[in-house]
Specification:
Number of strands: 18
Helix content: 10-25%
Radius of gyration: 17 Å
Largest sheet: 7 strands, mixed
Mean pLDDT: 90
Order of helices and strands: EEEEEEEEEHEHEEEEEEHEHE
Strand content: 25-35%
Structural class: mainly beta
Strand order of the largest sheet: 3-4-5-6-9-10-11
Low-confidence stretches: 1-20
Distance between the termini: 9 Å
Shape: globular
């Protein structure tokens, strides 16, 4: 844990992005993807369920969490976010300190109803709600829930969200805490998918394979996986790129 990250600022250079809510730094080791419009989407895989996206000078934070175990992340290094999305109210996805650090006067906050109640502000997104952000980005809240008997109490159907972000035609699926669900077959074309793999709370490795085969993303990044052994996952999935990142345990 301590070797993963202790202070997020260690990952940052002084790189700045113009536009958006404020001048913001973004991790130098972030992943980069080209969009159909010819622009670059940068993706910071911060830790566990925490992700950030930078596109056309705007920064979106998903489930930012400041502390987990021995790890502490300094979100002030990012500057203020243009939008923050929360999937659900569990402590490893909702962190008031991180939200406060990332929020400025123009920051939009989106979350499921339970999370908005906990935070005391923000726009409620139910499964199926959609909208647009600045810079050619749209979003849709999609279902995320457990289906296996004995697990359904972890993430009940209709409570939490996953999110599909469309960056000028480059579509990213952040699944939230879920098992394979029938709604995945209706997501449409997905370029990049983040699927959680930490049984019994989310997916087993075999369930991740099942979900990925339905979604068929061009790139799959398992996240939220804690101590799950993912070493065999790339060989189980053909025809897609699988990236296993230590930071997303």
């Amino acid at each position: 844990m301590k070797k993963l990250l202790t202070i997020l600022t260690a990952l940052f250079g002084l790189m700045s992005c113009s536009g958006g809510n404020n001048q913001t730094a973004f991790p130098e080791d972030s992943l980069s993807f080209g969009t159909p419009s010819g622009k670059t989407l940068r993706v910071a895989c911060i830790f566990h369920g925490s992700l950030a996206f930078e596109y056309d000078g705007n920064v979106i934070q998903v489930d930012p969490v400041t502390r987990m175990g021995d790890m502490k992340i300094d979100y002030s290094a990012f500057g203020k976010a243009d939008a923050i999305f929360i999937t659900h109210a569990h402590h490893d996805h909702l962190c008031q300190e991180a939200i406060d650090t990332l929020s400025g006067e123009k920051t939009a906050l989106y979350a499921n109803a339970e999370s908005v109640s906990v935070i005391g502000r923000g726009k409620v997104l139910a499964n199926g709600d959609s909208g647009e952000l600045s810079g050619g980005v749209s979003y849709t809240a999609v279902p995320a829930y457990n289906t296996t008997e004995g697990r359904k109490m972890f993430h009940p159907k209709g409570n939490g969200n996953g999110y599909v972000f469309d960056f000028d035609g480059f579509r990213v699926y952040v699944a939230g805490d879920t098992e394979p669900i029938e709604e995945m077959s209706g997501l449409g074309s997905i370029d990049l998918a983040f699927l959680p793999v930490n049984q019994p709370y989310t997916m087993t490795v075999s369930q991740c394979v099942e979900a990925a085969e339905v979604i068929r993303p061009k790139t799959l990044i398992p996240y939220h996986y804690s101590d799950t052994d993912l070493s065999g996952l790339p060989d189980m999935l053909k025809g897609m790129e699988v990236k296993i990142l230590d930071s997303l345990r």
